[in-house]
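Before relying on records like the one below, remember that each one covers exactly one chain. Contacts with other chains, cofactors or solvent are not represented anywhere in the record.
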Amino acid sequence: MDALELIEIIEGGETSTVQFKEALPEKSPIEEEMIAMSNSKGGIIIIGVDDKSGDVKGLDYDSLQKYESTLSNAANEKVKPVIYITTEVVKIQKNGIVCNVLVVHINEGTQKPYKTTKGEIFIKQGADKRRVVDNGEQIRLFQESGLLYVDEMIVPNTNLSDINKDKVVDYVKKISESDDVDINETTYKNLSIITDNRLTLAGLLFFSNDPQKYRPAFCIKAVSFVGNDIAGIDYKDSEDIKGTIPSMYVSALSFLERNLKHVQNGQNFNTEGELEISKIAFEEIIQNSLTHRDYTKNAPIRLLIFDNRIEIISPGVLPNSLTIESIKMGNAVVRNNLISSFSTKILNYRGLGSGIIRAIRNQPNIELYNDKDGVQFIVKIPRM
């Protein structure tokens, strides 16, 4: 990093990925800052800059050597698992005097959650950090590192009577390409529908009689508004779409079809006309929402139709290092292994990372937003 680049970063102030420290006190809990960044999106700690004013103070040679040792010790001995950091000294000229500033680079961790030796977990909250005590947040950190898959976890209080055997029979017939199937408890275990005689989350969402009995928020809230304001009190149509993932997929498409216009588009007068927005695009977006949403968040998918746009809002931002640009190129990270596996066999979903590409190809004006502040992924489609 050169001086001009560092000055530009400093002038931008502290953020969730940039932290200032004028100095490191003798008993500085610097490991907490490292943990927060590793558990979030990574970042840099700039030492030698006043965290209140952003003024460059600089460090002398002895302080640089001492802080290097302090940082190395914190990363190796005060954090579990170990955090690997890199440091560099950048020289900045201030009022004709050269000041040495220590820059500590911390990558987003691959073994989340990182914690102190006392078991404390921190994440970034804007420019500050906060301690994580909520079980759901801790589970999300495990999920981000690939150490845990939420859809494979058991759903408490469920049992074998919650399974819709007909759904399992249809599924096994489809994957085995045979009408001669024998369904029993071993089948349920082999398909990961159950663990210890209780349904997994994926089993509940695909093969149960009533998924919302145990997970009422895992539905689709669909509303067709009058006007363009989400705070509006008038609506044309409203439905809480419930059931298994395959049935919610079908119902969501039905809701869209009955609330959107059909246009002639050069067709014969006696034909029904084409949907004003590509049905292929909708199929891909709804499938992606149901398959890839963050199931650690106790919230529904929202399907909102306004006069000038459609919004499909999924709980959870893109997982790991995925960005809007990367998913447009076909990159994919599987957040829900079992759900994705079931989707590839039951829905039109292929799991190749091509769904967004196909949606954009058929509906070029789609807008995608990875809303990290709202912790949600938003698809917007302007209407004619």
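The longest helix spans residues 61-77.
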